Amino acid sequence: MQKLIAGISQTSRLALASPAYINDSSIWQHISDALHQSLYRVLTLLIEVLPGILALFVALAIFTSCGMLISRLLRCCLSWVKFDLRLARVSGDAWASASPPTEIVARASFWICVLLGLIVGVSAFDASYATGTALPISLLPYVTHTVGAVFLLIAGILIARFLARSVLISAVNAQLQYARFLSLGVKWLVLVLTAAMALDHLEVGGKIVDLAFGILFGGIVLTLALAVGLGSRDLVSRSLESHVEHSGERGPVAHDASSSSEQLRHF
Amino acid sequence: MTAENSTFAETSIIDRTAAHLLVVCSAIPPEQLDAVLANLAEAFPVESVVVTAQDQLPVNAPTNLRIISARQSNVTWMLKPEDFVNAYEIGREQQVRAILMLGPGANSLKPQALRELAVAALSRSIDLVIPHYTLPPHAGLINSAILYPLTRALFATRTRFPLTIDLGLSMRMVEHLATVGKRFVAANQVDALLWPVSEATVAGFAVDEVEVGTRDVPQPSDPDINTILALVTGSLFADIEAKAAFWQRPRRLPPAHRQASKTALTDGTADVPRMVEAFRLANSNLQEIWSLVLSPNSLLALKRISVLDAAVFRMPENLWARIIFDFVIAYRLRTINRGHLLGALIPLYLSWVASHLNVTASGTSSERHIEAVAAAFEADKPYMVARWRWPDRFNS
Fold first, then answer.
1. Which of A30, B45, B306, B331 is deepest in the core (most CB within 10 A)?
2. How far apart are CA A46 and CA B140, in angstroms?
3. Which of B87, B93, B100, B119 is nearest to B23 (CA)?
4. Domain boundaries, chain B
């Protein structure tokens, strides 16, 4: 009887010990299986994406090559028919660009081909996802928005620089002491506006960006208005004095600068 | 010109024959026109002269002049391309040998001056006759600073006033100018300026200058220096760019056949401090823009003169010549926007004016200083040619 109980307890001990040993190995097996499955899914996704990427680059390469060929052909043909000379006869001095018209047409044709290649490539890339894949392609519209935002930023920066320079030169010629400040203010106004438009285009920030832009823009405008209003009193008074002199409401001006400035005739 | 476009009407009792001279008068008040007609009648007692009147025909016109009504022209301070086109068409219709174009204020020209303007073209020896006005001491400063020195250096002509409102023209000269004018009219650039002196020089026509004495020179409707300088210098720079193939070749300047006129010394230095201050303000704010246009040597020289006191402010002639040449180069290369470029020139021009006033106040005659400036332009022409051909190099 004691031997039987000892045997039973030994058996139960053995039974208790052997399941723990068996669970460890199955856990590692499960983990290994999970990792293998995820790796398999990634590789499968990559295999599905690769043809699309390849199609994108192939389309871009083909259209770029076509663009180079077309550009060279156009350059030769337009030079042969003396396009620049004919256009100069028609437009006279109205041609405003630094590059000759032939060069501009050739470059434009090249970049149009590149753009077409990009569009075709993106379409091919998109088509590779179109059939039965679970991979979200919500990134693709966001890439388009990003490209648009980049163009917005570039245009805004160019406009800001142009306007800043225009304001600087005009203010200096008007002998305003705060010309540089005014120019910087205009530049930052345009840059802030551009940044807000780009963020809005990217749908980032939402109302926070709108509010921040409103506060910043309004602050800059108020600062400029105060600076111009307070700083241009002399300019306004000079302008009013010259207006009154021309209309004959005031008598002879006493100070010498005005009378001697009448002796100067620039033309 | 087709008959249906012509609006001519003859009012003279003289039978129509081929006239010697056509006088094209711009739209002026009737009292000025009467004075012009009286001067013309005195200047040309025997020649057959046809005079165009823009507005209603005068009542008591001299009998030795044939007055015709012509197309309305809105000449205010400078001849427009359309004026040359109309003058040629009328001249061809009337079969004249020469044309005399007179702008507003021509009643202040004496009969002898009118005759001298026309007789050289009538004799078929000169194609373009330019008047040499006797102006007040500090008048025509843009011409003295930029137009005359540039034209003299590049086109090898001593014409003191390259852009005038009165001209004596042979028929072939006016035909040439009309051809140029038609291009501007076709491009809808009706307010563009034509440069008769450079056109005549490039075409190989004979150019001469005659003393006409004093004249009431009409002023632009907008006398703002910013507008005038940009318009006139921009037009000249464009003309220089168009004729680059001509002026790059070395040419000998014809000898001066008239001495520089002595102008009365006046003290116009009251404006000098204001102009020097404007230059200093520009020097501190426009360095970024000037550095894109001017050579490092010029920038350094400008920095040096910016610290001079207004009473002794002086811009060296060779520095001014190089500044203008650099701006012409930048205009051609479109280094910066052309409007910005010409705006950035204004403070530099004012600094030259201040220097000129100081020089003339110190006892040097105005004409002598202007001749020195023109000589500096001539001496630095090789610099201009070199930079035109190799624009990326700043030659010392």
1. B331
2. 77
3. B100
4. 3-221, 269-389
Q: In what order do the strands lie in the sheet with B49-53?
A: B65-69, B49-53, B21-25, B98-102, B167-170, B128-133, B207-213
Could you tell me what percent of chain A has a pLDDT over 70? 71
A113 has a pLDDT exceeding 60? yes
> pLDDT tens digits, residue range B296-351?
999 999 999 999 999 999 999 999 999 999 999 999 999 899 999 999 999 999 99
B226/A177 CB distance under 8 A: no
Per the CB < 8 Å rule, is B142 touching A93? no
| Residue among A148, A157, A149 at smallest CA distance from A188 | A157
pLDDT for B258 equals 59
Tokens standing for residue B2: 């087709």
Residues of B in contact with A93 (CB under 8 A): 187, 189, 192, 238, 242
Task: Classify residue B57 by its DSSP letter.
Answer: P
Q: Measured between CB atoms, which of B192, B219, B226 is closest to A267?
A: B219
The verdict on A246 touching B (C-beta cutoff 8 Å) is no
ipTM above 0.90, yes or no: no
Question: Nearest to residue B79, comparing CAs of B176, B167, B183?
Answer: B167
User: Which chain B residues are within 8 Å of A238, Cβ to Cβ?
Assistant: none
Average pLDDT over residues B37-46: 88
